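lol ok so funny story. i was supposed to be doing the assay writeup but got distracted and ended up predicting the structure for this chain instead. priorities right. anyway since i did it might as well share w the group, maybe its usefull for someone
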Amino acid sequence: MPDGGLLLRLCRAAAYLALTIPTGPIQAVLLLLRSPLARRFPAAYHRACCRVLGFRIERSGVRSTTRPTLYVANHQSYLDIPVLGSIIEGSFVAKHEIASWPFFGLLAKLQRSVFIDRRPGNTARHRDAIMERLEEGDDLIIFPEATSSDGLHVLPFKSALLSVAEYRPRGEPLVVQPVTIAYTRLDGMPLGRFYRPFVSWYGGMEVAPHLWTMLGLGRVTVKIVFHPTVTLDAFGSRKHLAEHCYRVIAASLSQLLAGRGEGEDAAYQAAAGSLLYGWGDSADADAETADAE
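and the output, tada:
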């Protein structure tokens, strides 16, 4: 069931290259001409990639229509990029090392990704770059875990990565929308612990062997849940905003992997729990812990 063999791998690899090689120059020209299509074209490309890779995407919840919006999502694999990119016309906030990666670094640049370097001395420059993009009305997608997980759990969110939520484009609070991504089924069967490393990329896994294995999989069902939008003003500090997003996404992922509903009910309960903890009344931004940075 999970392995389609050499032929399927070769066909998918050939189809991916046949799709990517001509579309890259098209996007480069759109960027050069500063065309509005440069925002929308990557989403069409990612939708085609998902079809080539055999992803069946099921979405629930209401996606924000406000521009700009900061989408906050859990992170399991490089596969999250085409999946989220296929339904969100936005740019990813990525670590600066990705910019130098062969091939994939170029693709990230063509999608207008914002590369950040968290080393001291670089924070202000990258924050300014992000704020400039928000001021232009660009939606951004960020993975506050700062790394990828095993797909079974959500790692603690680093509140420092949500410092961009403090920015107020055009004087209004920045809209933040938590998003859950879950790889739930393989060829219609629940994706258990044994097969999960075939889609989740984490730890010391090498990209090439993992990608080659993934290309031989059958049809993978991916569920995306858009949760209610929030703003930093409702929580008083980015730490409490990060905690809220974490609780909502973690509860939703657990529900999705258990096959219960669409991952929204538990998330709403988690959101209610945020209010019970009184995060919306706290403005103690200085209480953030060093490890959250």
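The chain has one domain: 5-283. The beta strands are 55-61, 69-73, 90-95, 114-116, 139-142, 175-186, 189-190, 220-226.
back to the writeup now i swear
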